Fold each of these.
Amino acid sequence: MKVNSGQFIPVAQIAIHDRDLQAAVARGTSNAYQKRIRAMYGAGYEHGEALRQQAAEAKRRALRRLPELLEQAEAVMQANGMAVLWAEDGEEACRIALDIARRHDVHLVVKSKSMVTEEIGLNQALQANDIQVVETDLGEFIIQLNNEPPSHIVAPVIHKTKESIREIFVQKLGMQPTDDAGEMTYFARQHLRRQFLEADMGVSGGNFIIAETGTICLVTNEGNGRMVTTQPRVHVAFVGIEKIVETLEDFATLVQVLPRSSTGQAMSVYTQMINGPRRDGEVDGPEHVYVVLVDNGRSEVYATDYCEALACIRCGACLNACPVYRVTGGHAYGWVYSGPIGAVVTPLFVGLENATPLPYASSLCGVCKQVCPVDIDLPRMLLDLRSDVVEQHDDTFVWRAGLRVWAMVTRSPRLFEWGGVAARLGVRLTRGRLPGPLGGWTKSRDFPPFAPRSFRQLWRERQKAKQDEQS
Amino acid sequence: MTLPERPSPLGKRVSLFVTCMVDMMYPDTGMSVVQILEHLGVEVDFPEGQTCCGQPGYNAGYRDEARQVARQFLKAFKDAEVIVAPSGSCVAMVRHEYPALFADDPQWLPLAEHVAAITWEFTEFLVDGLGITDLGARLPEPQSFAFHDACHGLRLLGLGDAARTLLGNVENAVIEDLPEHDVCCGFGGLFSIKMADVSAAMLQRKVANIEASPAETIVTGDVSCMTQMNGGLSRRKSPKRVQHIADVLADGLQEHNDES
C-alpha cells in the first residue's frame, strides 16, 4: 500500500472539519471504549488486569522464541497437510498468491478481513492479473466498493455514517434506498452469497498460529470468515510471522482478551481453528490449504528495541481510546495501521523518514498503554521514535533551532529569568496572539497574560520582608 | 505502576520545585502551595538555581538538550531532603525519565536516582507523604467542583484520589462529575503547537464536557492542562474556568485564617 504518512497534519485537518466523519468516529470509538471496559473488568478490576498481564506474558514468551516456534509450526502444519510458504516482503507474498491462483485456475477470490493483505497490496496484485477479488467482511466490502483503504484495524468503515453507506450501495449496486441498517446488511449479504458460491479461492488472515498444534485461529463475527475458508476449493491464509503463540493454553488466554478489547465481547461469534484441508471422508472444506508466513519488515523490527511492538494482537483498543485518533480518524495516518500502534509500527515498517509526523501525533497521555491487552509501552516507543527523528536530522530547522535556544536559556537560571521577562513582554505586546510557529496555539485558544511578577521575585520579596521583620 | 519504596518525607524540609510555568505565569499558585505547606508546619525553601525539569526538550526528542536542562535541576536540588512540585507531569519527568536519561552517565546517575526518589507531586505529598486528608479548610460559601485528571499524574504516577480526598474534606466544597474526566485535554506540551489543530479539536471535546458538567469550577493538578482548557473556555466565552487544586485549597485556608 502506498505510504502517505508524511501528510498527517493536512489530512487530519480535513478530517477535523468533516462533520460526518467526526460524528461517526466519535460514536464508534466511544461505544467500543465503553464496551471494552465492561467486558474486561466486568468480573472485577483485578481479574481483568491479571488477564491482561497473562496475555502480555504469553505474547512476550512467544516473541522470545519466535524463530524456533515458526519452525515448529511449519513442521506440524506440513504434517497436517497444509503447504507452508515464506514471504520476505510484500512483493514475494503477492507472487506466491499469483502462483497459487494460476496453479488452481482461479478467476474469483473471496476474502475475509486481513490487515496483512492490505499491507502487501494483495488485491491490487491479483486484480492486475485479471483475477477478481471480493472483500466479504461488511466493512471491507463497503470500502472496496468506494475504493478507500480501511480507517480502523477492526472497524474499517468506522469513519462512515449509515447514510453515506446507503449512498454507496444505491450508487454502486443499485440498492433500493432504505434507512434500515438491517435491510442494507441483508442486501449486501445477498450480493455476497453469490460470490461465495462462485469463488475458486478464499483468502484469509490469521489472528494466531498455535505452534504446538499448527493451528490457524480466526476470530470473526459475521460468518464470512467461515465461508471464505471452507466454501472455495483453495484456502490461502496470509499471516504475519509475529502472530505465533506457543501453546493452546496461551491461545485460550489471548482469545479472551482479543474480543474483549476490540469489540467488547466476551467471545466473538465465530472462533475458527483451522488444522488442515478436507480429509478423506469429510463432506466439506477446501481441497488445498496454503499458509503464507509474511515477514515484510518484521524481522528487522525484531532485532531492535522496538521488538515489543510485534506483540500487538491488532485489537484496535488503543485506537478507540486515543484522543488523537478520535478526532483525526484513521486515514490521516497514511498507511495500513492507524492510532497509537500505527504511529509506532508505520515508521518501523515503511521507514521513519517516510512517516516523520507520526511519532508526534500523540499528546503522550498514556491511555494507549493502559488499554493495551498485551501492555505494549506505546508512549515510550513514541518518545524513542521522536529521539530517532532528531538523531536522523529529520526534524525541521525551526524546531531544531528553537529547542537549542530553549536548552541554552533554560540551563542557566539567570538567562531563564530574563527569558521569562522577555516572554511576559512578548505576550503583552502581541496581545495574546502568539507569533510565528506558536501562532497555531492562539488560533483557537486565548493565551493568558503573564503575572506581573514571577514566583521567584515574589519569593525574594517575601524572604526580604521576613528578614526585615526579624531585624 | 509500582514505584520503588521511597524514604518517608515526614519532618523533613521541603524544597519547592515550582515548575517553569508556575514561576512565569502563575506565581500565585506557587504561593498557595507554600501557604498550605507552612500551614501544616512544614519548612519550605526555594532553591534559586531551579528552572525547568527539561520535559519540553525530552518530549520533542531532544535528549541532549533535555539532559543539559535536567543537569541544572540536579545541581539546584542536590541538597534537597524532599522535593515537592505542583505538577504531576513535571514530577513524572523527574521520577520516571531522569534515571533513564542519565542511565549511561555514571557521574550524574546516582544524583538523578536520588532526586527521583525524593520528588513528590503536591497532593500526593500531602496525602501519601504526610498522611493528611483534611486541611480543616472551609470555603466562604458552597461551591461546586469537578476534577479533570491530568494524564501524567493519573497514568504515570498513579495519583488516584488524593486531590479529590483533600477537596472533598473542605467545608462547602461540593464535588460533581465531569464527563470523560480522565480523557486528555489535548495539551501535550509542544504537541499543542506542532499539531495545534488536532490539539484544538481534542480541546473542543473537553470544553463541551466541561460545559455539560454541573460543576462551576473544574479542578486539576497541572497548570499546563489548565492553560489549555482555560484558553478554550475563554475563546468560547464560557463562564466556567479551571483552577489548580492548590489555589482552591488555599482559598479554603484563607477563610480559616480570616476567622481565626
Amino acid sequence: MDSDFGKAVIVVIHRRKNFFSEIEKLFAENSRMLFKEITDKEKIKPNTVYVAPANYHTLVEKERCFGLDVSESVWYSKPSIDVTFESAADVYKQRCTAILFSGANQDGADGLLTLRNTGALTIAQDPLDAEMPQMPEAAINIDAAEYILRTSEILELIELK
Amino acid sequence: MNDGSGLTDAQLNELTDLVNKVHGFDFSAYSKASLKRRVVRVMTNKSMRFYDLKHALVNNNDFFQWFLDEITVNVTEMFRDPDFYKALNKQVIPYLSTYQHVKVWSAGCSSGEEVYSLAILLNEAGLGKKSFIYGTDVNTEMLKEARRGIYSLKKIRNYAENYQLTGLKGTLTDHFTIMYDAATIHNELKNNSLFSIHSLVSDSIFNEFQMICCRNVFIYFETELQERVLELFYNSLSPLGFLCMGTKEAIRSDRLKKKFKVINARENIYQKIAD
C-alpha cells in the first residue's frame, strides 16, 4: 500500500503476551506506510498502519482516538478482533472496510457481522487460501462476509475502493 | 453478542447520570467505548432491557454492587509486563534504597496483585523492612480480596511464569503458603501493606509517596480526567519521586510532560521534577 493510501489501517493479530515480537518491524520494512504500535488515546490519522498491542483489547473512541482495555479475553484472545470490529462499527459505521484473515478460533465472526449490519464492506479470506481456515469459516457460516476472496483478490478490491 | 445498537450514546449518558445521582458514583469521564461495551455486556448476560437495568440500579443495592464489579475492569496479574519490573529493579530500586522509609501507592489496585508484586520486589531487594505499600481502589469487594491475599493455583502458575521473566533471583512460591488449590501470600508481605477505598475521580491527596504505580487505570479515563489525576499524583509525590504508568499509556499534555523526567520511555517510568 502506498504512503498516500488516504485511510487508517488497524491490524489486530492474535499473539502471546510477554514475547517481544518483530511484527511491527517486519511490516514496516515491507510497506511504504507509517507503522505504529497503538498507545492509549492516540489520535487516529490517515496513511498510518496501527498494530494492536498484545495483552490489551483495542477499541475506537468517538473522538477518533484509540482506547485500550485489559478486560477478560474473548475467544481466549486479547487482543480480540470482535472487540475492535464492534467498536469500529459503532464509530465508523459504513465507512469501514473489514477483512478477516486466517486464524484458529471464532474470534472476529460476530464483529464482522456487526460491521456488515451497519453497512461496512466486509471480506473474509477464502478458507482454502488461509493457513488456518477456522476464523474466516466461522464468519462465512453466519453470513458476515459480503465477499469471500483470496489474498491477491483482496488487495485488488482494496486498491479499487 | 451485542451489535453496537444495544445501547445508544444518549442512553449511556442517562445511565451515567442516574448512577451518579443515586449512588454518588461518577462514570462521566470514563472512556466511552470501553464503558459502553461493559454495560452492553451486563445487559446481554442478564437478558435485561435498558429499562430493566435502570430499574434494578435504582431499587436494588446488591445489584448495583454487582454492576460495579462488572463495569470496572478488575483483570490483573502479578508481575504483569515482566520487563517493567526488570526496569524498576535496575533503575528505581537503587534510588529508593537510599531513603530511610519508602512509601508506595498502588492506585487502582483491584485484587492486590500489583501491591504484592511490589512487596515481593522490595523484599527481595532488602527494602522490605523500611517500605510500606498503600493499595487503593473504588471497589470494596476487590479490596476485600486484596486483603485476603489468596490466589488460585491456576493463577499462581501464570504469575510464576511472569516472575521468571523478571529476572528476579528467587521463586514466586517462596512468598506463598500453598494449601489445596490456593496460595496465600506470607504475612510479612501483608503486614507491609494497607488497602483502603479511594476514588481517583473524587478523592484527593492522603499521603506523600516516593513511588506511585498506576498501571492500566488511565486507559479507562478520558484525557481530561487523566490530566486531573496526573496532577493529583504530582502533588502526592515527594520531590524526585517516581511515577509508573501502564506500558501502553501516555502523558498527552505538554504542560504535564514538563513536570516529569522520563526514566524509562518503553516501560513508562517517570520522576517528578522538583518545583
